[in-house]
Amino acid sequence: MKQYIIQISLFITISLLCFSCENTDRTLLLKAEELIITQNKDSALLLLESIDFPEEMSERDYAKYCQLIVFAHKRNRIAIKDDTIIHHAVNYYKDKPSDQLEYLKSLLLLGNVYEEQDSILLAEKCFLEVHNLSKQVNDTMFYGLSAFELGGSHKYRGKYDKSIEWFGIATETFRKNESTIMQLRSMRQAADCYVLSGKPDTALTIYQDVLNQISDGRTKIKADVYKNIAITYKNTGHYQEALYFIRKSIETTPKGSPYPIQYIVLASIQEEMGRKDSSIYYNRLALKYAQKQNDLDVIYRAYEELLNDVYPETFDNYLLSRAISDSIYQKQKYESIKYQRLYNIEKIKQNNKELKIGRQRYVFLSLFIFICLITFYLFYLNTRNRKRAEFKQALDEQNNIILAIRDSVSQRLFFYKKMVRLSISPNKSKHKSFLTEYNKIMFEREGEFSHDWAITEELSNSIFDNYSIKIEKFSPDINESERKIIILMKLGFTVSEISSIFDKSIHTIYRHCSNIRKKMNIPKTESITDFFDKIL
């Protein structure tokens, strides 16, 4: 038993040690990454890039990693034009029916990568496959997402009617799914297509419908829709309405986080209305906010407008210097981001190392407690077994003493019966001196030994477990004389000897025996002593 417990404890110890030393951080990270990526996209990308040698993961974990790294780049609006990574996820999930949804997700991301490569037809092929497969498996979310992506790709190619059709499918799907954000995004995209296809009235109707469905708390989305309405009115020559809605967009924007593009649009409207000074003012305001937010697109656009309006002769020189500065800035930006990420990766690795050390301490503490418990249990087992052995030994000794006492009582009964038989024999006179000596030694009595009923009853009760008392209890119809006869017969006296002990005739003893049989319904084939042995 001890050896078995020690083997189990050693096995558990080794297993825990292996577990504590195993690098399980990557697998645990992948499980939590999907929850992090939607809320903290920057941190999610850093965490994924901090994983060392992801290709050493299990095939399943590496496929998940490839899927997540591409999704994190998409969420951070960082172009990833290499389709090798996402192809690995697509190929892994393709032949696994249990991972059908993961396959659809990977295929959707592959389409996004193809879009970054400007391979729009390949992207549409991926989106269309997701659309058809999701319809087969009855997954409405991927059905709507694929329709949304197909609408975007057709919009990029200038096929606005087809794009509107796909955005309509997406809108209806998300409405049934109660996915309000994606529904509103689809409606806005459809409205943008109507504007581009020369149908501003339809676009304005959709924009107004979007505004009616936006909850009060989503001020940024409202501000963006107001901006789109303003641009639509500007393109149709309704400058007053455009001015109203762009100002409403600025008012709706949360304080402290203005959109620089709003001031670009406002400046453009002012310029169309012939208010050049106001246009320059708002372009400068847009430039100020864009510089604070490091929004390069708005910065360049604002500079272009300002140079074109204020210093038109220097505009060509500006375009040349911008091309050079873009190249330098992009390189500096890449280097800065690269070293910042390397620093963050090293910091995360250090934190992971500290976490691993803490976990190992916890495991070793658990092992120490476990070993202490095993030791205590073994000590308890040893103590219990020792006490059991001592108790068994004491019990055996007690049984030996009881057996010895019984043997002693049996010997005493043997000699007592001999003396009784001598005292009632016809040659009693020959043994007179012996009987007198025995009576003196055994019972400390003077005179010749004779049968004593108290001693007889005591011996019967000692040897046969309260035999006399049991007869009284279980056979109340038996009288005193009959009870004594039964006891003497149990002790081994014959009918003749019993008649001599009681100084009665043998016929009288037989009559008592007959009465006993009648009272107790004892069969003739069964002896009286056997009957009482059976019932007592």
Key descriptive features of the protein:
Arc Repressor Mutant, subunit A, mainly alpha, 536 residues
Can you describe this structure in just a few lines?
This protein is an all-alpha fold.
Give me the secondary-structure topology:
Layout: H1 2-21, H2 25-37, H3 41-49, H4 59-75, H5 84-94, H6 100-116, H7 120-136, H8 140-156, H9 160-177, H10 180-196, H11 200-213, H12 219-235, H13 239-252, H14 260-272, H15 276-293, H16 296-310, H17 315-424, H18 432-443, H19 453-463, H20 467-474, H21 480-490, H22 495-502, H23 506-520, H24 528-535
Q: What's the N-to-C terminus distance?
A: 45 Å
Element pattern in H and E? HHHHHHHHHHHHHHHHHHHHHHHH
Q: Output the structural class.
A: mainly alpha
CATH C-level category of the domain at 451-535:
Mainly Alpha
> What's the total helix number?
24
The quaternary organization reads as: single chain
Strand content: under 5%
- The radius of gyration is 54 Å
Largest sheet: none
Detail the poorly predicted runs. 13-24, 313-321
- Globally, the shape reads rod-shaped
- CATH fold category name of the domain at 451-535: Arc Repressor Mutant, subunit A
Helix content: over 70%
Characterization of this structure:
This protein is mostly helical. It has a domain at 451-535: Arc Repressor Mutant, subunit A (Orthogonal Bundle). Helix content is 80%, strand content 0%. α12 (219-235) runs antiparallel to α13. 28% of the residues are buried.
